[in-house]
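pls design
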């Protein structure tokens, strides 16, 4: 089996997209968001990282994490989060024979997409992307109406106005200034 190679930059900040295996019509992540939160909490206890921004949509999620200095193990963390979430759910999903042979559940796509954040402008653009994603996908009309997002934490800190992402006008992200 070919080993997938990931970048090894200790202490870096990363943007991630993580998808369910079956995306169409699937609401598993928001239906069981408490299981996802618990899995994240458990993994953070043993493999610390900071969640800088995150949004959980019905069938995928986006996150920005910063790892501790000297640590580059993003794959271990996502593997543990996915398996912890999966173990909390009843075994009702369809599985292909390749997953059965490997002893895998059929909940998540095997891999995830990562992008190392390069600078403050890159960080701000990805934070905006994360928070606007529920509107982009048509789940809500206003960013503030999506409950599974760090957007609300950003509003509390004064980094966004409550109507950020509304059309028109769109407020600038003060983190970019």
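designed seq:
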């Amino acid at each position: 089996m070919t080993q997938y190679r990931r970048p090894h930059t200790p202490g870096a900040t990363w943007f991630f997209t993580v998808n369910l295996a079956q995306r169409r019509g699937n609401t598993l992540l928001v239906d069981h968001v408490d299981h996802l939160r618990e899995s994240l909490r458990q993994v953070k206890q043993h493999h610390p990282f900071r969640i800088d921004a995150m949004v959980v949509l019905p069938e995928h999620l986006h996150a920005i994490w910063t790892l501790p200095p000297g640590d580059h193990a993003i794959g271990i963390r996502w593997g543990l989060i996915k398996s912890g979430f999966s173990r909390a759910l009843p075994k009702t999903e369809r599985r292909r024979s390749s997953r059965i042979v490997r002893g895998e559940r059929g909940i998540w796509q095997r891999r995830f997409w990562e992008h190392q954040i390069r600078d403050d402008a890159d960080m701000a653009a990805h934070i905006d992307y994360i928070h606007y994603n529920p509107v982009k996908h048509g789940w809500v009309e206003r960013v503030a109406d999506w409950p599974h997002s760090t957007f609300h934490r950003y509003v509390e800190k004064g980094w966004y106005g409550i109507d950020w992402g509304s059309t028109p006008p769109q407020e600038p992200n003060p983190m970019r200034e």
